[in-house]
Amino acid sequence: MKSQESRSGAQTTQGNWRERLYNPYTVMWLVVLMYTIKVATKLSAGYLTNSPVFISDGYHNLSDILQAFAVMVVVYMARRPPNTDYPLGKSNIEFFSSLVIGLSLLVLGAQFALQSLVGLLYYLPQADQAVRAYITFLPDHKPLLTDASSYPWLIGIMAGSGLLSWLVSRYQITVGRSTGHTSLVADGEETASDGRIELIAMLGVVGQFLFGAPWLEYPLALLVATLVIHTGKELFMQAFRALLQHSLPQEVEEEIRAITMDVAGVSDVLTLKTFQVGQVAVCLLTLRTKLGAEKVGFVRLGVEQRLTDYLKEAGYISSEIHLKFKGEAVRRYRIAYAIAQANTGMVVAPDLQTASHLAICDVEDGHITRARMEVKPAQPEPFLHEKLVDRLFVFSAGQQAPALKQLIAVKPGEKAIEIVQSTVLMPDLLGL
Hints:
By secondary structure, the chain is an alpha/beta fold. The protein contains twelve helices and ten strands.
């Protein structure tokens, strides 16, 4: 008994720790602590050495602290339950955070690129003068103030900072995806871009130390700026599309359509509309079916279950599937079989002239639902037109169906009746 209570208590403790580790607020407070340490170390090192990389990255990390608090507010609002005004909740507010983060990365990347270009121009005096003659607002270049004694701790700051960024970004993205918080994932991507910046900056410092070439920092910084701009663009466009309720990716919609058509009872997907609310995929489908109302419920369950499973595999934390069904009009028409008396009984006659009877059949969606045997009248053509027959079936052994096709002569303006080859000789096989 005590052993069971002990195991139960251990499981409860383990569950509590997991809840705390996967709590978005725990993640963001860790982010705040990380960026506070980064700001203090990078700004101190940057101002001591005039390093544009350290200074700009330090102020960028300062803005990241404010951004972390903003993400906490957004997460709080997104977790509010749905109500009558917001039936799907307020999770789309997280995309505003992604939009701002993406825009800030675009601005940061542009500033970073400008500073790097100014640094490169400094080592090309003639080009620097020519460019400044046309672009007068370029900032002044501050040369690096590094020496052999400063390299080790500069490398240590950037290496430690980059490692922290990588670890914390993985933590943010994992928790964000498991809890469905887009803003947390976006902030994790931004933290990962910080790690790339810090890695390149560290390589620049190492290059200066090994080769005595301070200018190496600037082309590397341009590479970092490109990576930052790329990340910013992706976050901005993802949020922009979600806020405008852009449809899910084309490949996802195509798979949704294919999965739905594969469900028994669905004959067509008439309309398909999709969009995203937070990490929830919303699908609106209108389906055509031949089944009656009593069977549509089973089709609904099949479609919903298969689409829910697929969308979960596609990375959406949950889904909203809304289905409408439209019945398919039954295709009704009439056919006739030319029947003749033979030694073995009734058979399908080889032509209309030798037939003694006509089997008039009502057909629904390719199935004979009713058949009546009529004695062939003296003038069978008007009789067949009166019965609204579309096709007359005969059986001619040894003849191919295409060669047998012909039209019964009719009055001008009347629909022609096609004569085609029957697949069987014995009417019993047709259920007549």
